[in-house]
Every structure is written in structure tokens, then in C-alpha cells.
Write a structure and sequence with these properties.
It is built from 8 helices and 7 strands; from the N terminus they run E-H-E-H-E-H-E-H-E-H-E-H-H-H-E. The chain is an alpha/beta fold and 253 residues long. The chain folds into 2 domains: 204 residues, 3-Layer(aba) Sandwich (Rossmann fold); 34 residues, no CATH class. The chain has a 7-stranded parallel sheet, sandwiched between helices. Helix 2 links the parallel strand 2 and strand 3. Helix 1 packs parallel to helix 2, helix 1 crosses helix 8 and helix 4 packs parallel to helix 5. The longest helix has 29 residues. The chain binds NADP nicotinamide-adenine-dinucleotide phosphate (NAP). NADP nicotinamide-adenine-dinucleotide phosphate binds next to helix 1, helix 4 and helix 6.
Amino acid sequence: MNTISQRTAIVTGAARGIGAATAIRLAKDGHAVAVLDLDEASCAQTVSAITAAGGRAIAVGVDVSSPEQVDAAVERVAVELGAPTILVNNAGIIRDNLIFKMPVEDWDAVMNVHLRGAFLMTKAVQAHMTAEMHGRIVNLSSTSAQGNRGQVNYAAAKAGVQGFTKTLAIELGRFGITANAVAPGFIATDMTRQTAARMNMSFEDFLVSAATHIPVGRVGQPEDIAATISFLTSEEAGYVSGQVIYVAGGPKD
Ligand code: NAP
């Protein structure tokens, strides 16, 4: 089991889906958790789940693509919960389309949340991590990084996240900071519900169809990703850095 040591964790996009499950899991691991999302009020359910179980959490509204908002949010977390030394860059959006139909705004929107967002959050939080000589950064990539029809923007961003992560590992390792990427396969969340709608399928049929292509015979749940992030943010994961861990119910080639 993980060695428990209470730290302050920040999880972006934690109002729902993988981010919410991760925030709840990190609180169970003993950490104080800052639940960040676009709309502060939308974080209430995640925060309540944590505090009802005896944990410590605050909700913080922030657009991760805004430098001013990111700096203010990280400062608030440091004041209210203590210096953040765990960061999970999870906030994400999809704007799927084939390249010939993709508006430039949809390319920019996806880059701004996934890449600019992870960059801004990490830049602000690493100042605290380097001062503490400890840090655990986990960035959400995706199996789509290897290419996926209709996702030229998202695939490029998620491949970019992998290069970003490996470079963080190289630059920040000497400060006791690790950086890893988790690359989920199909996880049942609002994001995949959105994909089902675009394909004119019911979410239920989409889940059944997806499971037939997954070696373990089921789709993933947000808790599957949270469990992997729990390990990567633990004290004992200090020698795992610069890795991309595929959590997809089977191998990815
Ligand atoms: P989700 O249910 O759509 O949740 C994403 C969250 O991010 C939402 O609460 C959203 O807020 C928030 N967000 C979006 N833009 C933001 C911004 N600019 N600033 C702050 N928060 C923002 O997605 P999910 O399925 O849990 O995915 C979480 C992460 O895993 C994403 O990075 C995604 O790309 C990755 N991933 C997911 C899957 C999958 O199958 N689900 C697979 C591979 C990778 P709003 O609700 O207000 O928009």
C-alpha cells in the first residue's frame, strides 16, 4: 500500500469524470485537495464527497488557459491549504471533426486547454514544488495520442502532453519532482457520452460496442485512472518519472 504522507494536491477539471474520481481518491490517500474547474459552483459535489468522508478540500474556479486566473488560483490554494506539491493536469475538452471540416477555433480551443493549460498550471505550481524539494506531476494524455480519426486536434495535443511530461521529468528531477503521463483508453464519462452523441448512438450501445474491442472485456471507469494516479503521486513512486502509463484494458501499440 501507499505510504501516506499528507500533502496538498491540485486536480484540474475535477468537477466531474476522471478529475472528480481522482480528487476523491487523493483525499482518501490523506491529501488536502484543491478541486479546480471552470465554474467554482460545479465543484461542490466533489468537495462535499471529500468533506463528508472526513477529508479536506476547497473548490476553486479557474480557466486553466488564462495565466492570470491560474496564478491567482494556485496562490489561493497555497494560502488556504498549504504549498501544493501534487498536480494533476486533467482538465480537457474535445472538439472532434475531420480535418477538412475543422474550424481553426476548434484547433485552438483544444490546444489551449490541454497544452497551454498544463503549461500554465505546471509553471505556477513548480515554484512551490521546487521550494519544497518535492513534487508529483501527472498529466492526462490519451490513447488518441497515437492517432484517432476525427481527432487531429486532440491527438496532437495528447501527443504534445507526452513530450511536455518527459521534458518536465528531465528539468525538474533534481528538485525531487517526478512527472508522468497517464494515457487512458475508453473511460465512461461525459466526454465519451459526447462522442456517442456525435456518432448518433445511445451511450449504452456505445459502451457495449467499445467493450468488444477491449481485451479485459469492459470499458474503463474514472476510478481505474484515479488508482493509477494515486500510485504515481505517492511517496514510493519517486523513481518512476518521464513515463507514459497506458490504462486502457490492454496493450497499445
Ligand atoms: P469530462 O468529464 O468532460 O471532464 C472534464 C472537465 O474539465 C470538466 O469538468 C470541464 O469543465 C473541465 N474543463 C474544461 N475546460 C476547462 C478549462 N479551460 N479550465 C478548467 N477546467 C476545464 O472529461 P473526462 O472524460 O473526465 O476527461 C478528463 C481528462 O482525461 C481529459 O484531459 C481527457 O482528455 C482525458 N481522457 C479521457 C478519456 C475518456 O475516455 N473519458 C480518455 C483519454 C483521456 P466543464 O464541464 O465546465 O466544461
